[in-house]
Write a structure and sequence with these properties.
Elements lengths: L11 H24 L6 H31 L10 H30 L6 E2 L3 E2 L8 H36 L20
Antiparallel strand pairs: 1-2
The protein binds protoporphyrin IX containing FE.
The site of protoporphyrin IX containing FE (HEM) has 24 residues, from helix 1, helix 2, helix 3 and helix 4.
Length: about 190
């Protein structure tokens, strides 16, 4: 099947989900950091609504990504790679998955605890749990922020490792997450 991975590369579905989610997380980071600093204006309300809708989209895409990962699997570690590196990569990927679920969930709880309604791009209402709860709001907001900075650290490490492998190990770590022919690397060294 063309959308599934072959033995050595990520398939088109995994690649698309990976890069779309990267892009959306970058948008979310910018939006989140800017919107909390704004004075209470109509623009702030709009940016919060956008942040929540894009965040819920990431949650849905992550559900799809997890299902696809379970269905299609992952290519094996690059041949010849050190065992500790393969283990560190697997651990990082697991943590990134967890964080990309935990971010939308803590954001969702933060919003629910304010008692504000939640709508996806103004199109439909998304269920909320409970009502206004100031203590829960403070707790969830603290987690949302702390998890975000953990995500920043891990994502930078993850991207740095991929670029380092490409430039200095000359292997296909980065190339196999990109469409064939974008970077000139053999799939197996
Ligand atoms: C991967 C997804 C997400 C990322 C990367 C993200 C990122 C952020 C960031 C960086 C902030 C600013 C933190 C600060 O400096 O205080 C923030 C705040 C916030 N986020 Fe998210 N977010 C995500 C998903 C969501 C979702 C799905 C919702 C709601 C449905 C949400 C609701 C909020 C709210 C309400 C705040 C403001 C908290 C406050 O100061 O009152 N977020 N988010």
């Amino acid at each position: 099947m063309i959308a599934a991975r072959n033995a050595l590369r990520w398939g088109a579905v995994s690649q698309s989900l990976h890069w779309v989610i990267v892009l959306l997380v970058l948008v979310m980071a910018g939006l989140g950091l800017v919107m909390v600093e704004l004075p209470n204006t109509a623009l702030k309300v709009k940016l919060y609504a956008l942040h929540k809708s894009v965040g819920l989209t990431i949650f849905a895409l992550m559900l799809l990504r997890l299902a696809w990962r379970v269905h299609a699997g992952a290519p094996p570690p690059i041949a010849g790679i050190a065992r500790w590196q393969a283990r560190a990569a697997a651990l990082t990927h697991g943590l990134l998955y967890m964080l990309l679920f935990a971010m939308p969930i803590t954001g969702w709880i933060t919003n629910a605890a304010t008692g504000f309604p939640l709508r996806w791009f103004g199109l439909f209402s998304v269920p909320q749990f409970g009502g206004r709860d100031d203590a829960l709001h403070a707790l969830a907001k603290g987690w949302h922020e702390a998890l975000f900075w953990s995500l920043v650290v891990l994502a930078i490490g993850h991207a740095f490792a991929a670029v380092w492998h490409h430039l200095f190990q000359h292997d296909a770590t980065l190339a196999r997450m990109l469409p064939r022919g974008w970077l000139d690397r053999e799939e197996s060294p």
